[in-house]
Design goal:
This protein is 77% helix and 0% strand. The protein is built from nine helices and no strands.
Length: 195
């Protein structure tokens, strides 16, 4: 048996992830067979089993990769804003807009919810913690009325996640996005301090 180098193992894993991401996005998880997927990757089922356990494990890894990329994009929005409140609003709007991106819509908002039951608890907690830090900054600056930041972050994250699922599920995604964005802006206006 030939031993593979660490670099070869990482390359195999990356190839499986990239192929799965493309195939899941184009055809969906249910319509993707492991044989087709590994053939398109130019690898064996054994490689898939070794790195991810099974097709479901591969989906979870693809979702984790997309979640990490989403977080980087959202953080860049917050960090790039001149005004902390405006950055917070832009970040929330962008999260909803991402529900219409085909890759996120199909893999994260449809397939992951159906197959994995949604985001992992770790991913959800990471999102809540990230939002909590933003809210704490807004409270410290007097922009948001004093409140428990973790509770508020949990409520806002839950609202955004459910709205994203609602947008992704409908045939009229653009209309749903407009409706959800209007509702979000009304909801968030209530957070501002009356200073």
């Amino acid at each position: 048996m030939v031993r593979r180098t660490r670099a070869e193992m990482e390359e195999t894993r990356a190839t499986l992830l990239a192929t799965a991401r493309r195939v899941f996005s184009e055809h969906g998880y249910a319509a993707t067979s492991m044989d087709d997927l590994t053939a398109q990757a130019g690898l064996t089922r054994g490689a898939l089993y070794h790195h991810f356990g099974d097709k479901k494990g591969l989906l979870a890894a693809v979702v984790a990769q997309l979640d990490a990329e989403t977080d980087v994009r959202l953080q860049a929005i917050s960090d790039g804003a001149d005004d902390a409140w405006d950055g917070f609003l832009q970040r929330c709007r962008a999260y909803l807009q991402m529900a219409l991106e085909p890759e996120i819509q199909r893999i994260v908002l449809r397939d992951a919810r159906a197959v994995l039951g949604g985001a992992s608890p770790e991913s959800q907690q990471y999102c809540v913690n990230s939002m909590q830090r933003l809210i704490e900054q807004l409270i410290t600056r007097g922009v948001v009325a004093p409140v428990d930041a973790q509770a508020l972050a949990s409520l806002i994250y839950g609202s955004l996640a459910e709205a994203a699922f609602w947008i992704a599920e409908g045939e009229d995604g653009d209309a749903r996005l407009r409706q959800a964005t209007a509702a979000l802006e009304m909801l968030l206006r209530g957070l501002k301090s009356a200073r």
